[in-house]
Design goal:
single chain, Ribosomal Protein L15, Chain: K, domain 2, 2 domains, three-stranded parallel sheet, 13% helix, 14% strand
């Protein structure tokens, strides 16, 4: 097969509707646009969301809330996620990323939350710890390092 022998699949192409070719064709004279008015004219029609001149729904509804420009984004991990590691392991954001426990390393680093139990002696390096997370890690015999 050569490039000049390529053809579209049977019935996959439909020929364009020819309008304005006489009244006998069914779409002559006004070409299926009706008579007069904005939509019959060339370039006619209204923009998306236009409601005939009344105030559009999007402008009638109140805008709520705001985005805090000073919000700090952390990669979040719970204490229970450390159970899969061996005793004496050193855990930081890079290790958690390799193990696919977190999706990405956030701009402000790693934050450890205290959800779940921990029975392994691990060293955890993170930017922030909740009080409960810090207590659980130390109680299990591990160490906490704030980076």
């Amino acid at each position: 097969m050569n490039i000049h022998e390529l053809r579209p699949a049977v019935n996959s192409k439909r020929s364009a509707k020819r309008v304005g070719r006489g009244t006998g064709s069914g779409s002559g004279k006004t070409c299926g646009r009706g008579t007069k008015g904005q939509n019959s004219r060339s370039g006619g029609g209204v923009r998306p969301g236009f409601e005939g001149g009344q105030v559009p729904l999007l402008r009638r509804l109140p805008r709520r809330g705001f985005t805090n420009p000073f919000k700090k984004e952390f990669a979040i991990v719970n204490v229970k996620d450390f159970e899969s590691f061996q005793d004496g392991a050193v855990i930081d954001a890079q290790v958690l990323l390799e193990q696919k426990i977190i999706g990405k390393i956030a701009e402000y680093g790693l934050k450890v939350l205290g959800n779940g139990d921990l029975n392994k002696k691990v060293t955890v390096k993170a930017a922030k710890f909740t009080k409960s997370a810090e207590e659980k890690i130390v109680k299990a015999g591990g160490h906490v390092e704030v980076i």
